[in-house]
Structure formats: C-alpha cells, structure tokens
Amino acid sequence: MPCHVPATSVSFRRRAFYQMRPPVIAAKLDLSKPGEAWAEDYLRRASTGNDAFWRPLGIRRDAAALLVAVRWIIGKKSERFSIVTISLTEHAVSWRKYPSAKAAKVALADIERMPTAQTGSFSSIAGAAASTM
Predict the structure, then answer these.
(1) Is 78 a member of any domain?
(2) 34 lies in a domain?
(3) pTM
(4) Is residue 56 within 8 Å of residue 69, measured between CB atoms?
(5) Which of 1, 6, 48, 69 is in the most buried spot, having the most CB atoms within 10 Å?
(6) pLDDT in tens, 11-38
(7) Which strands form 122-125's sheet, in the order they lie side by side?
C-alpha cells in the first residue's frame, strides 16, 4: 500500500516563486499630504475593480505629479496607450496619447527630462469627475 508522506522540502515551483526579487518601489507618496493621498486613491480607483478604466504599465514621480503609462481598457485600438499625469498638489488629471505600449514606456522613461506642465495634451479637473465614479 502506498503511503503519502508530506514532503520535507519546498517544491521547485514554489521555491522559484518565493525567490523572486521584491517589487521595486516606483513612486513613494506621503499619504499624510492631502494631494498625494488623493492621487493614490484616484490611481487605485482608476486601475482596480470592476469599474477600472486603465491598467498601469509603468509609474514615475516628480515633485508635483505622478506619471503613469497606462493601457486604456475601453476605446479605439489606435488610442489605447497614454501617459497620465496625476497632480500631487491639486485634483487634476491630464494625459497624452501614444501609438503603442512601447512608445508610452519609452516616453515615460524620457519624461524625467521634461517639466510636468508640458506632458498633457488633454486635461480635466477631477474634482467633478470623481463624484461620478
């Protein structure tokens, strides 16, 4: 009769999962500041749950904004990728469209050289939009 004895060591598959590097912190926010807490909440609502409208591809932070490369969930395929700028000082969101995920990620990597005010070609004040979400 075969007898099953629990393994005394962790399987290779499970061991490989646990040996992955911890995630790198892409942007650190001080949630005690109202603008940064709002930006974190907006990013979380926009990218998670059943009502999500984008998926983040990459994230950066500068002094006044959170910069997120995103893939829009709904919309034309030709307009699926953007860099979204979420203000850390006021309730404002702006975005610039890119033709591909690669182009958005490259632009996000290069955006550190550009001031935040020049990144958005579309914008909205999110205070009014937040109540509709």
Answers:
(1) yes
(2) yes
(3) 0.67
(4) yes
(5) 69
(6) 555 555 555 666 666 778 889 999 999 9
(7) 54-61, 65-72, 81-87, 92-98, 122-125
